[in-house]
Amino acid sequence: MKIGIHPKYVKCFISCACGYNFETRSTKGVIKLEICSHCHPFFSGKNKLIDTAGRIEKYQKRLEKKLNITK
């Protein structure tokens, strides 16, 4: 391996928007996340939906229209 071409591998502090913090090692010193394994619905088992642009409501309205037409 060549000397001096690899990035430094340092302690990294990771913080999530939900408030969960932990420490690991990475090439970056600080990483800020919007969602982590503690607050993500797939990993936490909670049915909390995260919607930033109203996509869920839009889909539900389309689904209701489709179901009302077929009834």
Give structural notes.
By secondary structure, this protein is of the alpha+beta class. The protein has one domain: Rhinovirus 14, subunit 4 (Irregular). It is built from two helices and three strands. Strands 2-1-3 form a three-stranded mixed sheet, with no helix packed on it.
In short:
With 71 residues, the protein is an alpha+beta fold.
Structural class: alpha+beta
> In the CATH scheme, what's the topology name?
Rhinovirus 14, subunit 4
Mean pLDDT: 82
**Count of spatially separate domains:** 1
Oligomeric form:
single chain
Taking the sheet with the most strands, its summary is: 3 strands, mixed
Helix content range: 25-40%
CATH class: Few Secondary Structures
Poorly predicted runs of 5 or more residues: none
Strand order in the largest sheet? 2-1-3
**Could you tell me how far the N terminus lies from the C terminus, measured between alpha carbons in angstroms?**
68 Å
Q: Strand content of the residues, in percent? A: 15-25%
User: What's the β-strand tally?
Assistant: 3
Shape: elongated
Helix count, DSSP H or I runs of 4 or more residues: 2
Q: Under the CATH scheme, which architecture would be assigned?
A: Irregular
Gyration radius from CA atoms, angstroms: 21 Å
